[in-house]
Amino acid sequence: MRMLFPTTCILSACILLASLSLSAALNLTLPHQHPDPEAVVQDVHRRLNASLSRRLLSSSSSSCGTGNPIDDCWRCDPNWASNRQRLADCGIGFGQSALGGRDGRIYVVTDSSDLDVVNPTPGTLRYGVIQEEPLWIIFSADMMIRLKHELIINDFKTIDGRGHNIQITGNGCLTVQYVSNIIIHNVHIHHCKPSGNTNIRSSPTHVGFRGRSDGDGISMFGASHIWVDHCSLSYCADGLIDAIMASTAITISNSYFSHHDEVMLLGHDDKYLPDSGMQVTIAFNHFGQALVQRMPRCRRGYIHVVNNDFTAWEMYAIGGSGNPTINSQGNRYTAPANPDAKEVTKRVDTEENHWSDWNWRTEGDIMVNGAFFVPSGVGLSAQYSKASSIEPKSAGLINQLTMNAGVFGDPRDNSAGISYPGFSGGGTSTTTTPGGGGGSGSNGGDGDYFGMIFGSDAPPAKSSATSILLSLLIILVLYTTTNHGALLSLQVLTL
Predict the structure, then answer these.
(1) Among 134, 140, 148, 125, which residue's Cα sits nearest to residue 179?
(2) Any idea what the Cα angle at residue 278 is, between residues 276 and 283, rounded to 5°?
């Protein structure tokens, strides 16, 4: 008994410390996570109400306002082109603090080539985005930029395509990895393909080996304070926008999505706990022609979907797993003709007894052509009324708020569609490309995700909970090798 007491105490202390550590590890927060997401939701509504009120109070002959709080913030200034960086003060939602290159110099892209990804030419887009200093990047003319490999963007950069037709396509497309304060505005991003297994420069002082990318239009990985506004995205090999691995403080607004299968992925894997701190605002977008699913598909996190126009879908509009919070307010959902695809929502690979307490809410949404949203959790009760929504009085409000979604001047669903010189045909790739590039990063499967996409340049984040469990296991193994190992093992079994 004299040996049992100290052994049991040591083991109990180890288990207690491990339990406390595990509890802390499971209650994860991210450095840039907002402590009160409902306050951000209410701020979006306040700004929207203010813009709509200004529009109603102003005469149509003297006001340029549309009621869209982002556009009305800068477009009503006739001299906006001489004060481009004011755009950074016009954001809303979780990504509203994204500064981009607001406090830096103007950098003008004069060369549309992308010939050398290790030593890019000054004047190219690649040369601008890798610099250490804040830069507001604009373009000297209309450009089709065909990327040789993924474009790795450094901190505090704005890509501002206003005033010109800027198309970004090719291999890899835009990568926002372990950086913050990025604004991507008014550019076309399309026909992005997997690429990699090569050295790529990510800053003036660093060149790293990159594994094979997925072919996303915009890929966010461990990034924060990101704002994507007035972009048109289509025809990519994997997702149009993916935000994974503890990315947060993101707003995706005023953009136009079309001709794609898996549109938007938010969250890496159901078991990746840091994505619980992901916070994303999706506002004033138009989900247009030939879309199938994932508008978005959410894993964990808090996703605010407000005043978007969902023209149609083939499978579902909003999906999720891993208990994300989805707050859908003031959207218009137009279901397809298929009687088996009327539901807006999809709980992916999850039984109802597991998702019934997930917080999925619909408020002020317009359901067209038999569309229906299945709420759950506190979304079913009045307890969630703290974040009061803007209830559209008619479909005309959605038309008004999303009338300029995408790159300014682009055609919409009632036209012949968007054409891209130099590309014939289209449609998204749903097959797996040689080397495993096509889409494996989006399904959270068992493949070698990190080795395939990011190579040795970005090792996977280690779970603190896993490390604690491993440490406890080592302690137990050490004790079981002592003279009292059998007694210790018996105590473990009877705890």
Answers:
(1) 134
(2) 135
Residue indicated by tokens 């409902």: 38
The C-alpha atoms of residue 43 and residue 159 are separated, in whole angstroms, by 26
Query: What are the strands, taking DSSP E only, across 102-194?
Result: 105-109, 135-139, 143-147, 151-152, 157-160, 166-171, 174-177, 180-185, 188-193
Alpha-carbon distance 203 to 159, whole Å?
Answer: 16
Question: What are the structure tokens assigned to 448, written together?
Answer: 């070698």
pLDDT at 56: 76
Contact indicator for 268, 245 with CB cutoff of 8 Å: yes
Catalytic residues: 294
Q: What is the CA radius of gyration of the chain?
A: 24
What are the structure tokens assigned to 349, written together? 């690979």
Could you give the angle at the alpha carbon of 187 between the alpha carbons of 77 and 224, nearest 5°?
A: 90
Q: In angstroms, rounded to a whole number, what is the distance separating the alpha carbons of residues 305 and 298?
A: 11
Nearby residues of 221 by Cβ (< 8 Å), 6 or more positions away: 175, 176, 177, 178, 244, 245, 247, 454, 458
Max Cα distance, the chain (Å): 92
Low-confidence ranges of the chain (pLDDT < 50): 1-27, 61-62, 382-393, 414-417, 424-495
Residue of 180, 210, 222 lying closest to 461 (CA atoms): 222
Specify whether the CB–CB gap between 153 and 162 falls below 8 A. no
Contact (CB, 8 A) for 439 and 238: yes
Residue 296, preceding peptide bond in cis (omega within 30° of 0): yes
Q: How far apart are CA 88 and CA 96, in angstroms?
A: 8
Helix 464-480 vs helix 4-26: angle between axes, to the nearest 10 degrees?
Answer: 170
Instruction: Work out the angle at residue 289's Cα, subtended by the Cα atoms of residues 368 and 436, and round it to the nearest 5 degrees.
Output: 120
| CA-to-CA separations, 158 to 176, 243, 421, in angstroms, rounded | 12, 18, 26
Burial (Cβ within 10 Å: 0-12, 13-18, ≥19) of residue 65:
buried
Beta-sheet pairing, 218-221 with 224-229? unpaired
Q: Looking at residue 418, what is its pLDDT?
A: 56
> What's residue 31's pLDDT?
83
- Pairwise CA distance, residues 88 & 132, whole Å: 19
Structure tokens that stand for 80 in this block: 């906006």
**DSSP symbols for 441-478:** GGTT-SS-HHHHHTGGGSPPPPPHHHHHHHHHHHHHHH
Give every CB contact of residue 271 below 8 A, 6+ residues apart in sequence.
322
Contact predicate 196/452, CB 8 Å? no
Question: For residues 479 and 489, is the Cβ–Cβ distance under 8 A?
Answer: no
HEC string of 249-279 equals EEEEECCEEECEEECEEECCCCCCHHHHHCE
pTM tops 0.85, yes or no: no
* Residue 378 confidence (pLDDT): 80
Q: Which residue has 């009292």 as its token pair?
A: 484
Structure tokens at 198: 């090569």
